[in-house]
Amino acid sequence: MSLDGKLGYQEISDLLNLVEKSSKSGILTISNDRNSACMFFNRGKLVRASSDKISDRIGEVLLNHGVISQEEIEQALEIQKNEERRRRLGTIFSVELGVEDAAIQSALTTQFKAIVFEVLSWEEGRFNFEFGEPSDTLDKFNFGSSGFILEVGIEAGFTSRLENHSGNSSFIFIDTRKDFVDVCIEFCKEQSIAARCILTMTELKSVVQADDNHKILILSSNLGPDARQVAKAVRKTFPDMPIIAYGSDNAVWKEGGLAEFAQGFVKAPTAEDLKGPDGYDHLESFISMLQGAISSTDS
Q1: Using CA atoms, how far apart are residues 239 and 296, in angstroms rounded to an integer?
Q2: pLDDT single digits (tens) 36-51
């Protein structure tokens, strides 16, 4: 299983929150035409990070920060080589060579923040999170990533563009698959997100006029050719309303002409996904990706 999306502060923040809260393991790859970066997670904690410009080798990081010597790096590598169940070098530096934990933690924090700051400064890019099995590798040093991405976001000013969504917003789903939408709406309610499903323009007009909430149309591309007609009608009647399409395949969005009226597309979980053991995680990531797509319409 993997998650894909467009690079942006909100999207990455939502994803890292999801990974941390659900204690997931895997590799987050972020890239564009010129650069790439990777973050490695074990049970929701960030344990390693690297980019084209910043090395992920803990020995090099600590050496560059003046924490250890080249001789100590070689000692640690020799110890690791002879271990049946290998520990990470950071743990060996701490336990076997007496390097202060605070110095190691500080150096790693600086490195990880630099990588996050770097990728968030890219003007464009994509991300992919490939879920994997938890590693048994013993690692004394790890990080709750959602905390420092918020800190980096505040330092860099990335969070300022989210202020447009600090008020009340409402999701308006248009989809004939009642079972799927009911599950989404129930989840939204748990997260204090206003949401409802409609099937006609008359219903939409009534909902729009009901209150002052910021309305976002969440349109299923599974409606086929009708999806484009609905989006066209909504755009004509409510030109300022954001429209986000979703479905199992973005080809319908691109080739069916829906992209002309909808600002973004989010891949939706299948019925099998929702029924499986990771159903809640699929649903949570779907709603998070919707929120990220909505944020990008105002960026």
Answers
A1: 17
A2: 988 888 888 888 888 8
Cα separation, 88 vs 80, in Å, equals 8
Quote the pLDDT of residue 223.
Answer: 76
- Radius of gyration (Cα) for the chain, nearest Å? 22
- Of 161, 180, 209, which closes a domain? 161
Summarize pLDDT for 146-156 with one digit per residue, the tens: 555 655 554 55
What is residue 78's predicted lDDT score, i.e. its pLDDT? 92
Q: What is the pLDDT of residue 179?
A: 84
- 138 lies in which domain range? 2-161
User: What Cα–Cα distance (Å) separates residue 261 from each residue in 7, 98, 210, 253?
Assistant: 21, 61, 24, 10
- Say what the pLDDT of residue 228 is: 83
User: How many structural domains compose the chain?
Assistant: 2
Helices (H), the chain: 9-21, 58-64, 70-81, 89-95, 101-120, 145-156, 178-190, 201-210, 225-237, 250-255, 271-275, 279-296
- Cα 268 from Cα 254, distance rounded (Å): 16
Contact 76, 92 (CB under 8 A): yes
6, 10, 16, 19: CA torsion to nearest 10: -80
Angle at which helices 279-296 and 9-21 cross, to 10°: 160
Using one digit for the tens of pLDDT, what is the confidence trace for 212-238?
677 888 888 777 777 888 888 888 888
- Provide the 3-class DSSP secondary structure of residue 16: helix
